[in-house]
Amino acid sequence: MLSIPRSRSRSNEMERFDLPHVAGVISDLDGVVYRGTQPIPSAVVRFRDWWEQGVPYCFVTNNSTRSPEEVAAKLTAMGVPTEADQVVTSAVMTAEAMARRWPEGGAAFVIGAPALAEAVADAGFSVATDRADAVVVGLDRDFTYAKLDRAMQLIRGGATLIATNSDRILPNGDRFEPGNGAIVAAIAAAGGTAPLVIGKPERHLVDEALARLAIPPERAILIGDQLATDIAAARAAGVYAILVETGVEQLEGAGPADLRIPDLSALPDFGPPDGA
Predict the structure, then answer these.
(1) Distance between CA 37 and CA 265 in Å, rounded?
(2) Domains in the chain: how many in total?
(3) 124, HSE (Cβ side, Cα atoms, 13 Å)
(4) Is residue 262 part of a domain?
């Protein structure tokens, strides 16, 4: 894993981390809490501790393949007590963004998992292939040339390209897989357009998490494993950004996190928020 540029030592970073003022935790999932189906033990222990201490937390994930209920069930089975309203997914946020843009509904061609299609349908859109106001793209492990061609034709016919996220790769166990960003890049190139990206590095998911935690940005921390998505989203929302080294390798030029740690066991302990 490559080092990220930083201007001060890790000990100095720790000294500047104002732990007593943390009132809530926002965290990514893949590469932070688990890698694919494998939980990361240090993360499970830390979130379990926070749950027992009454520290509120909310998860923000670019993964559009599972509903909040499914994600919460997965986390709880791994030992991290979680309710569906503690999970903000790019699929749900994408559907909400579409509802704001087309308040009377419309048609959408969806490339992605059933959870994404269901979220789009729940927002008042018909899921179609013959016409579309929007081509909505989430991670699709069954992506084909035929889907690429259909998306291209619809975009060139006037449909808006909307991406749940732009992650280029995903951690899965001890390997990496192509992410949704790879699919979106192909569709954008064929369609001759730039996508509207809803998930991280945009701040939408983080803002929603802050609203659910009912805390201001300066009282939160965000934990992620990717500079270009998690840390960038934290910066955009004004939240203290912590990078863990348990996920995706880092690329130069994305900008440093406020704090970098090998895993969550290295994060200084803090108690429940004021008034808890």
Answers:
(1) 20
(2) 2
(3) 11
(4) yes
Evaluate whether residue 84 is within a structural domain. Answer: no
Pick the catalytic residue from 28, 167, 230, 258. Answer: 28
Task: Copy the structure tokens of residue 174.
Answer: 């001890």
Q: In sequence order, what are the residues at sequence separation of 6 or more whose Cβ sits closer than 8 angstroms to the Cβ of residue 14?
A: 259, 268
What six digits make up the tokens of 117? Answer: 């299609």
Angle at alpha carbon of residue 140, lines to 62 and 156, rounded to 5°: 95
Q: How many CB atoms lie within 10 A of CB 79?
A: 14
Q: Which two tokens stand for residue 266?
A: 């290295």
CA-based nearest residue to 65, from 206, 199, 264: 199
- Annotated active-site residue in 18, 30, 133, 269: 30
Low-confidence ranges of the chain (pLDDT < 50): 1-15, 20, 252-253
30 flagged as catalytic: yes
Q: Please write the tens of the pLDDT for every residue from 168-183.
A: 888 777 788 999 999 9
167, 197, 227: which is the final residue of a domain?
Answer: 197
pLDDT tens for 107-138 read 999 999 999 999 999 999 999 889 999 999 99
> Cα 70 from chain centroid?
15
How far is 153 from 129, CA to CA, in rounded Å? 10
Q: What is the DSSP string of 160-201?
A: EEEES---SEEEETTEEEE-HHHHHHHHHHHHTS--EE-STT
**Is this structure's pTM higher than 0.90?**
no
Residue owning tokens 């909400």: 96
Residue 45 shares a structural domain with residue 25: yes
CB atoms < 10 A from the CB of 42, how many? 18
H/E segment holding residue 110: strand 106-111
